[in-house]
Structures are given as structure tokens and as C-alpha cells.
Amino acid sequence: MTTDVWGQVQQELKDGMSGSSFNSWIAPLELKVLDAQVATFEVPTGYFGKYVNQNFGDQILYHFNRVGENVQRLKFAVPANKSAKAKVEAPANAPARPTKSSDHLGADIDPRYTFDSFVVGKPNELANAAARRVAEGGVVSFNPLFLYGGVGLGKTHLMHAIANELRASRPELNVLYLTAEQFMYRFITALRDRKMMDFKSQLRSVDVLMVDDVQFMAGKDSTQEEFFHTFNALIESRKQIILSADRAPGEIKELEDRIRSRMQCGLVVDLHPTDYELRLGVLQSKVELQREAYPTQVIAPGVLEFLAHRITQNVRVLEGALVRLFAFASLVDREITLELAQDCLSDVLKANDRKVTVEEIQRKVSDHYNIRLSDLIGPKRLRVYARPRQVAMYLCKTMTSRSLPDIGRRFGKRDHTTVMHGVKRIEELSVTDSQIADDLELLRRSLEA
């Protein structure tokens, strides 16, 4: 009965987590006793049980109750009759232990991700320049380099590009690339197998350490402790560290202050959401690759521009749409036209068709300029209100399908000529006033997010 219940719970857990996590930490657990609202498991080491309880305990309790068992607490016990040797051996159904050499400690580097294949535009030019500087292999004035931004903006591409460049130009350097999840897994495995000295030695012997998606270390106290000491050792040895995350260090919750401080002591670079010019540049570069696979495929004028305008989510979605479009056109033996693109990519286009409203623009603008919404749309003509009002009118004209009279009505029943004047004024200022241009770009990105 106990075995059957645990089997159900395991299946529930398996469906909700990665295969590596399940095989490493859930599959080895043996449920021995289920009594008095307590589930007692046999585990190979005390640390193993502590880690499972900390990272998966709530999930296990939840699924026990889902299958009808009122379990309120988990216990983990190491069998007393096991020898010290048996205690440190990995469970029979756990994954094979990774080879602890620097060649196998990290992840593979994708040879396709190079600086030549990275399309540079205003949103990512600083990140690209910083990555290239690090890839030269000498001592740089900023260490670590911290890249952050949303999904599909090029963080991982730049990290792989650095590794590829260094391995080509400075093959004597020991370059190690890891995801945060791999760092945690290697660390826990080394603890479990009593090989921490090997793990520490391998990490501290590298010349360049790259850790991707460090936000996943947040809340993992033991992992953060080891990462902190590794970080310090490498910095003191003047070794280069490159990190990436989906947000800035100061925005990662449950990250230790001392680690956050060290991440911020180097160069922190934001990869901004793509603009139209960058998206079009990406498409133009990827078309050449698609023509290698489909040399006779014809793409009509205007299609790339249409895709760059409509698909704003991220570069991965954009590239995927282009791949699908070429494959579909080849299969049906048709030219890639605007009509074909609309039919083939209807789901992608629909997902990116986020409608921005006048009311949303008004709220964003009033928040941005720290003025009351009532003053933004009210009758006051003071400059502190008039300029933000014109910015809001400009955004309404360029980001919505509302007519000028309709926009005017939503700004205190103003005449459409007032809206026209405001729009024209902002168009002029956006060319000569860098602050207005920056405000427009920031507001537009925020509204499109």
C-alpha cells in the first residue's frame, strides 16, 4: 500500500519537474513508513535528505494530499546499518556521476554562436562591445561582466561567442561555461560523493568562468555560499568572470547581499528589448542562412519588414517564424508573400498582437513623469503638464488606431487640431531633444512589454 501511494506521488512529481531533478533527488527516495501524518524516507546521506526537504518538501506534501493521504510532515533517515562507504555512494537509480575534469564540468559551447552571427543594434551595442573586450583575453577593467535582459535578447549568444573567440585565439586558457542549474547540480553531487575538494579545485583553476541564468541560485543558501567563495578566489587571482540573468542583480530576490554586491562591482549591462531596426537586421541575416537550405525559394519585398513590425516578442520567436515560413513555402511550393506569411504565422502574429489602449498610455505617461492622471488630461497648461500631455498624445497617435478627434476627446474633450499640434511638436523634439527621445523609447518599450 505504501509503495503504491509513493508511486502515485512520484508520477505526479515527475510530470511537474525536469527529468534530471527527478532522477537525482526523487527517484532515489524510498518511502519506509507512512503513519500519523508523517512520511518517513530512507536516504543515502543526511545532506541528501536536507536538500530534498528544502527544495522539494512542499511539492511532496502537496502531492501526498492530492492522492488522498493526509501527510503534514516529512522525515529523512539514513539507515544505521550502512557502512560509511555505502552512505556516500550514489543511489543505484541516480544518474551516473559526471566526470570531474574541467572538460566535462561545464556545458558544451555552441559553435554557431559567434560575434559574426550576432546582429548588433542600439539595444545591444554596449553588451556586444563589452563581450568583445572580454573575448580579447587580456585583463579588463571590469570584472565581473554581468549581462541581463529578457528571454531571447542574446545573453547566451554573447557568452558562447566569448567562449568560441577565446578558444580560437587563446587555446591555452581554461574557459568554463556553466548554467546555474549545472553549477548547483555539480556542487550537490560533489557534496554527496565527498568530492568537494576536487570540485573546488576545478572551479578555481579556470581562467574564465561563465555562469548563465544566475537568478536560479536565489534562495539556495549552500550553493550561494560555494559560489561566493569561488567568486572571491577567482577575482583575487585576476581571473575573468562573466555572469548572466534575466534581471539586474539588485532585482534578484533571495540573493545574498554579499553576492549581489560583488556582482555589481563590475560592469552591469542591460540588453534592451529589440527595436524595429534590430529585428529587421536579424531577419536579413537569417534569410541568407535559410537560402542555403532553400536556394530556389523566393521571398517577396515587404515580408521581412512586415515580420519585423509585427513580431516584437524576442529574437528567438522571430527566427523561429522565419524558419517555419521558409519550410512551409518550400513544402507547398509557393513564393513567400505577405499573404502566405499571414496564413502560415497566424498564431504567432496573434500572440504578438497586443492592443495598447489610450487609457494605458495615459497611466504610463503620468507615472513616468510623476504627475496625477487628472492633471495630464485636465485643463492646466503649465509646461510640467503640457509636455507629458503631448508625449501621451503622440504615443496614442502612433501606437493605437484611434482617430485624432477621438484622442482629443479622451484628453479633456480637446479639439483634434490640439492633438495634431502636440504630435507634430513631439516629432520635432524627438530629433533635437535627447531626453524626449529617451522618454519615448522607454515608454514605448514599457507599453509593448
What does this structure look like?
The protein has about 450 residues and is α/β, with parallel strands linked by helices. Helices cover about 55% and strands about 10% of the residues. Strand 1 and strand 2 (about 40) form a beta hairpin. The two termini are about 50 Å apart.
Distinctive features:
449 residues, alpha/beta, five-stranded parallel sheet, three-stranded mixed sheet, 22 helices, 9% strand
Task: Report Rg.
Answer: 28 Å
- Unreliable stretches covering 5 or more consecutive residues: 82-103
Structure classification? alpha/beta
Tell me, what's the shape?
A: globular
Mean pLDDT: 84
Strand order of the largest sheet: 5-6-7-4-8
Number of strands: 8
Q: Roughly what fraction of the amino acids lie in strands?
A: 5-15%
Largest sheet at a glance? 5 strands, parallel
Distance between the termini: 51 Å
Q: Kindly state the percentage of residues in helix.
A: 55-70%
Number of helices: 22
Question: Could you state the order of secondary-structure elements as H and E?
Answer: HHEEHEHHHEHEHHEHEHEHHHHHHHHHHH
In short:
It is built from 22 helices and eight strands. It is an alpha/beta fold.
SSE order and pairing:
Layout: H1 2-15, H2 19-26, E1 30-35, E2 38-42, H3 46-66, E3 73-77, H4 84-88, H5 102-105, H6 125-135, E4 145-148, H7 155-169, E5 175-179, H8 180-192, H9 196-204, E6 208-212, H10 221-236, E7 240-245, H11 257-263, E8 267-270, H12 276-293, H13 303-310, H14 315-332, H15 338-344, H16 346-351, H17 358-368, H18 373-377, H19 383-399, H20 404-410, H21 416-432, H22 434-448
Parallel strand pairs: 2-3, 4-7, 4-8, 5-6, 6-7
Antiparallel strand pairs: 1-2
Helix pairs in contact: 1-3, 6-7, 8-9, 12-13, 12-14, 17-19, 17-22, 19-21, 20-21, 21-22
